[in-house]
Specification:
Layout: H1 2-5, H2 9-21, H3 23-46, H4 65-78, E1 82-86, H5 92-103, E2 109-112, H6 121-125, E3 140-143, H7 153-159, E4 164-170, H8 183-196, E5 201-205, E6 224-228, E7 242-246, H9 248-258, H10 274-304, E8 309-310, E9 321-325, H11 329-341, E10 363-366, E11 379-383, E12 389-393, H12 398-411
Parallel strand pairs: 2-3, 2-4, 4-5, 5-6
Antiparallel strand pairs: 1-7, 6-7, 8-9, 9-12, 10-11, 11-12
The structure holds pyridoxal-5'-phosphate.
């Protein structure tokens, strides 16, 4: 079948040989998958997931038993006191924004210690004086950059003020050319903060990080983490939604702002999505493992062909995103177009860069996906700016990723037989 798609048999052979050389890495990914799969199954059994949890609720949703069970399971899997997992949280950005706006009060300070947060969060902070932003409520913000992908403990200490209430860490790379943060690094900085500043909460933007390791940031001391259900944890089956898990007092604040004070978590139907959310969660460890294998195949193969990636071959992924540094606008656009062209949905579309809300540069987004914009499905996006990095992530199955890689090598003329020796 690869020969049906690609006439140059040498490219297929080359990718096959790279795949064989990755067997150790793939076994490591399988071990993490195995652990997380059983962790999820254990929680489903202990919480007695039942067919009745899939039933639809209407109106206020006072007795949406499936929704309540989903929240217990999320809290269980992340080892937290409570969870808010809702269709009314419309995206990862919304989950993060909701958390910040729920916890922080006028005159408080927010400190980000992994550099500037993800692009779409900047509007919540209020860098352009957005209405309803933290700044609009007189909540100040500052940040400390990472140094060589490590936390800058000295400057973190210097930047903490008397009114710093919340420290934000972003696990994934976002649209930057740094590596994702490892759980051990996150643990060491949380330990440092908790030992010195008892009253500061630590929140982690966990987008793209779920099930990549056997531990989550809440296992190493984070008070609150959030993410999107159309990324890792939705397993490709959740149609929408976001989650926040953490300390009970914080979840209560978030729920009071999402709905209304005094009502909180008690209301809000799940729009008949309980089955999808549960089945997606159940599938997620496997889907994340395939996404990681695709990432590693791209990294290993492209590095051999002289293309730089972050992470590189020697580093284990701490999220499912691969930054591929193409240094060329045309190549970048073509790269994304090929991902789109070999997708199961909308393969025939010709992709072009456009302006998107929340991003300052034009962005090109390949997402030939069953769920619109889902980035746990194989997808690739890029802001059109130097050094022209394609951010590749997801993959519901490994072989679509492998085919896309073969086609990228062929159509971008990356294959030079000598380099394979
Ligand atoms: C995707 C992402 C977000 C925003 O999530 P959306 O669901 O796209 O709004 C925030 N932070 C990081 C690190 C992300 O990768």
């Amino acid at each position: 079948m690869y020969n049906f798609f690609c006439k140059n048999i040498n490219i297929v052979d080359f990718v096959n040989s790279c795949e064989r050389e990755l067997s150790n890495r793939f076994s490591y990914i399988e071990e993490i998958y195995q652990y997380n799969q059983l962790k999820v199954l254990k929680s489903f059994i202990e919480n007695k997931v039942s067919e009745s949890d899939f039933q639809e609720s209407t109106g206020y949703g006072y007795a949406d038993i499936g929704r309540d069970k989903i929240e217990k399971i999320f809290a269980d899997i992340f080892g937290t006191e409570d969870a808010l997992v809702r269709q009314q949280i419309v995206s990862g950005t919304h989950a993060i924004s909701l958390s910040l706006l729920s916890i922080l009060r006028p005159n408080d300070n927010l400190l980000s210690i992994s550099g500037l947060p993800y692009d779409t969060i900047l509007s919540t902070i209020g860098i352009h004086n957005e209405k309803g932003s933290l700044k609009d409520y007189n909540i100040s913000f500052n940040y400390v950059d990472l140094i060589n992908n490590k936390f800058d403990f000295e400057n973190i200490d210097k930047s903490i003020k008397n009114n710093t209430k919340l420290i934000l860490i972003q696990r994934s790379r976002g649209y930057t050319n740094r590596d994702a943060l490892g759980i051990d690094e996150i643990k060491s900085v949380i330990d440092h903060i908790k030992n010195r500043y008892k009253n500061i909460y630590v929140m982690v933007d966990n987008c793209y990080g779920e099930f990549v390791n056997i531990k989550e940031p809440t296992d190493v001391g984070a008070d609150l983490i959030c993410g999107s259900l159309i990324k890792n944890i939705g397993g490709g089956k959740a149609l929408s939604g976001g989650y926040i898990v953490g300390k009970k007092e914080l979840i209560e604040l978030c729920a009071s702002r999402l709905t209304a004070p005094g009502i909180g978590k008690e209301v809000g139907i799940s729009f008949n999505q309980n089955r999808n959310v549960l089945q997606g969660l159940y599938d997620a460890p496997k889907v994340v493992a395939d996404a990681l294998k695709i990432s590693n195949l791209f990294i290993y193969t492209l590095n051999k062909l002289g293309i730089k990636t972050i992470p590189d071959t020697n580093t284990y992924n701490n999220d499912i995103v691969t930054a591929i540094i193409l240094n060329d606008e045309k190549k970048l656009i073509k790269f994304c177009q090929i991902i789109q062209k070999y997708s199961p949905v909308d393969s025939y579309l010709n992709l072009v860069p456009i302006d998107m809300p929340g991003y300052d540069k034009k962005v090109i987004m390949a997402a030939g996906t069953f769920v619109s914009g889902s980035s746990i499905e194989l997808s690739c996006d890029a802001p059109i700016k130097e050094p022209y990095i394609a951010y590749l992530q997801g993959g519901l199955n490994y072989y679509q990723g492998k085919l896309s890689l073969i086609k990228i090598i062929e159509e971008l003329n990356l294959f030079n037989y000598d380099k394979t020796k």
